[in-house]
Amino acid sequence: MWNFTNPKWITTKAILFLFLGLLSGALLIFEHPTPKVALLLMLAVWSFCRCYYFAFYVIEHYVDSSYRFSGLLSVARYFSAKRTAMK
Predict the structure, then answer these.
(1) Which pTM value belongs to this model?
(2) Cα–Cα distances in angstroms (integers) from residue 66 to residues 5, 6, 63, 84, 86, in the given order
(3) Contact (Cβ atoms closer than 8 angstroms) between residue 55 and residue 72
Protein backbone atom coordinates (compact mmCIF):
# COMPACT_ATOMS: atom_id res chain seq x y z
CA MET A 1 0.00 0.00 0.00
CA TRP A 2 1.24 3.47 -0.87
CA ASN A 3 1.91 5.65 2.19
CA PHE A 4 0.98 9.30 1.67
CA THR A 5 3.34 11.50 3.66
CA ASN A 6 3.65 14.47 1.32
CA PRO A 7 1.42 17.32 2.61
CA LYS A 8 0.40 18.24 -0.95
CA TRP A 9 -0.89 14.70 -1.61
CA ILE A 10 -2.71 14.65 1.73
CA THR A 11 -4.35 17.99 0.93
CA THR A 12 -5.26 16.81 -2.57
CA LYS A 13 -6.83 13.67 -1.14
CA ALA A 14 -8.86 15.73 1.36
CA ILE A 15 -10.07 18.06 -1.39
CA LEU A 16 -11.10 15.08 -3.55
CA PHE A 17 -13.04 13.53 -0.64
CA LEU A 18 -14.76 16.87 0.00
CA PHE A 19 -15.63 17.23 -3.70
CA LEU A 20 -16.97 13.67 -3.88
CA GLY A 21 -19.09 14.17 -0.76
CA LEU A 22 -20.49 17.50 -1.94
CA LEU A 23 -21.19 16.17 -5.42
CA SER A 24 -22.96 13.01 -4.22
CA GLY A 25 -24.96 14.97 -1.64
CA ALA A 26 -26.00 17.55 -4.21
CA LEU A 27 -27.02 14.84 -6.68
CA LEU A 28 -29.15 13.16 -4.01
CA ILE A 29 -30.88 16.42 -3.11
CA PHE A 30 -31.40 17.33 -6.79
CA GLU A 31 -32.93 13.89 -7.34
CA HIS A 32 -35.50 14.46 -4.56
CA PRO A 33 -35.43 18.12 -3.47
CA THR A 34 -37.39 17.87 -0.23
CA PRO A 35 -36.48 19.07 3.26
CA LYS A 36 -36.89 15.50 4.51
CA VAL A 37 -34.24 14.15 2.11
CA ALA A 38 -31.86 17.01 2.98
CA LEU A 39 -32.34 16.42 6.72
CA LEU A 40 -31.88 12.66 6.42
CA LEU A 41 -28.72 13.18 4.35
CA MET A 42 -27.29 15.59 6.92
CA LEU A 43 -28.14 13.18 9.72
CA ALA A 44 -26.48 10.27 7.91
CA VAL A 45 -23.30 12.27 7.24
CA TRP A 46 -23.16 13.51 10.84
CA SER A 47 -23.72 9.98 12.20
CA PHE A 48 -20.97 8.46 10.06
CA CYS A 49 -18.57 11.23 11.10
CA ARG A 50 -19.29 10.52 14.77
CA CYS A 51 -18.83 6.78 14.19
CA TYR A 52 -15.49 7.42 12.50
CA TYR A 53 -14.44 9.64 15.43
CA PHE A 54 -15.48 6.92 17.86
CA ALA A 55 -13.58 4.25 15.96
CA PHE A 56 -10.30 6.14 15.72
CA TYR A 57 -10.19 8.44 18.72
CA VAL A 58 -12.45 7.29 21.52
CA ILE A 59 -11.45 3.62 21.33
CA GLU A 60 -7.74 4.40 21.05
CA HIS A 61 -7.72 6.99 23.86
CA TYR A 62 -10.32 5.62 26.29
CA VAL A 63 -10.90 1.91 25.61
CA ASP A 64 -7.55 0.39 24.63
CA SER A 65 -4.60 2.75 24.39
CA SER A 66 -2.24 -0.07 23.42
CA TYR A 67 -3.94 -0.80 20.09
CA ARG A 68 -3.41 1.42 17.02
CA PHE A 69 -6.09 1.15 14.36
CA SER A 70 -5.09 1.41 10.72
CA GLY A 71 -8.55 1.53 9.16
CA LEU A 72 -12.16 0.46 9.57
CA LEU A 73 -11.23 -3.15 8.81
CA SER A 74 -8.75 -2.99 11.68
CA VAL A 75 -11.53 -1.80 14.01
CA ALA A 76 -13.74 -4.70 12.89
CA ARG A 77 -10.93 -7.20 13.50
CA TYR A 78 -10.32 -5.71 16.95
CA PHE A 79 -13.94 -6.09 18.00
CA SER A 80 -14.16 -9.55 16.44
CA ALA A 81 -11.12 -10.68 18.42
CA LYS A 82 -12.54 -9.15 21.62
CA ARG A 83 -15.87 -10.92 21.08
CA THR A 84 -14.12 -14.24 20.44
CA ALA A 85 -11.98 -13.81 23.56
CA MET A 86 -15.09 -13.14 25.69
CA LYS A 87 -16.69 -16.49 24.74
Answers:
(1) 0.64
(2) 24, 27, 9, 19, 18
(3) yes
